[in-house]
Amino acid sequence: MLAEKMTNRSALIDAFLLEAGWSAASRHPLAGDASFRRYERVIQADKPAMLMDAPPPQEDVTPFIRVTQLLRSYGHSAPEIYAQDTASGFLLLEDLGEDLYSAVLRADGEQEEALYLAAAELLVDLYHRYETVGKAHVLEPYDETVMLREVGLFADWFLPQAVGLNKARSLKEEYMVLWRDILAQAGLRQHVPVLRDYHADNLMWLPERNGLQRVGLLDYQDALLGDTAYDLVSFLEDARRDVSSAVIEKVLDYFIAATQQDRDAFMKRYAVLGAQRNSKIIGIFTRLCVRDGKPHYLAFLPRVWGWLEHDLYHPLLAPLAAWLDAHVPAPMRGAFEADSTIGSIE
């Protein structure tokens, strides 16, 4: 059945490329990610493009199209859409190249400050543009309901691995009550678009372009209307790479000044959103291993736990820090051997 579905999907791709005028293109599959989407680089007459294959019902390309239009209307380097088939889940996109931030920085770490400041400048620009001219573009709110659902992934997937399924069930409500109290006191706003996966593996360095267009944007289809601190913490507390403390401080200083925000209030929201995001990621990476058979994501957990522990130093998060110390002490954190037979709460 799976082979038949893949064959049918391949025939649909052939028809899509024919309709788009790319039937003679050579096709080169790229490495997958944590979603059901997959990508191919297609090349015709020496012109490259990217084929996004996002099979419904698991995936929907409509949000990607909507956010692409928003970003391109601001002059940002989101890929141009050459052709689309929303019903089948295909997009033919501009190829932004291979220079992911992560790849550029592996080759030359001296560029870290310049690249991170450029990415922060884009967030400042997005903030100001949306505040002045972008309110007609409606995104769903990144509100408490969504955030609680996301932090629940930690309880649903990681806790059973750490303490067992029965104990995890008994602890979940305590954990969720803590998070409700934290979010209620954080002062979060839903006033700017947040791209949500704004990090070094989703940003391209395009030095041949000018100004903010040097930062290429990928994987933003889950954008919501949220707090201006979210994408910054996503970027600086990267699950996949360490960012130098000097660069973190310089970027934070620049961003707070450029957006004219109160530093204490901003850093409170930054810590809460960092803890929220990192708790979610721990749950997602555990789920990818236990449910989806992708154990390589567990290798990132020590870094994510390190970021979470850093966030927990903020006084507002002290009750959560104490709860984790009591129920998930240090030896249970970081890398572990997941057991798919334990299951999850959800």
What does this structure look like?
The chain is built from 11 helices and 9 strands. The strands form 3 sheets. Strands 1-2-3-5-4 form a 5-stranded antiparallel β-sheet, covered by helices on one side. Strands 6-9 form a two-stranded antiparallel sheet. The chain is α+β, with helices and mostly antiparallel strands and 346 residues long. It is globular. Helix content is 50%, strand content 12%. Helix 5 (144-163) packs antiparallel against helix 6, helix 5 (144-163) packs across helix 9 (263-290) and helix 9 (263-290) runs antiparallel to helix 10 (301-311). The protein folds into 2 domains: 2-94, Phosphorylase Kinase, domain 1, CATH 3.30.200; 101-332, Aminoglycoside phosphotransferase (APH), C-terminal lobe (Aminoglycoside 3'-phosphotransferase, Chain: A, domain 2). It has helices at residues 2-20, 62-73, 101-107, 112-133, 144-163, 165-185, 229-236, 245-258, 263-290, 301-311, 318-327, and strands spanning 26-29, 38-44, 47-53, 81-85, 90-94, 192-194, 203-205, 215-217, 224-226.
Indicate the topology.
Layout: H1 2-20, E1 26-29, E2 38-44, E3 47-53, H2 62-73, E4 81-85, E5 90-94, H3 101-107, H4 112-133, H5 144-163, H6 165-185, E6 192-194, E7 203-205, E8 215-217, E9 224-226, H7 229-236, H8 245-258, H9 263-290, H10 301-311, H11 318-327
Antiparallel strand pairs: 1-2, 2-3, 3-5, 4-5, 6-9, 7-8
Helix pairs in contact: 4-8, 5-6, 5-9, 7-9, 9-10
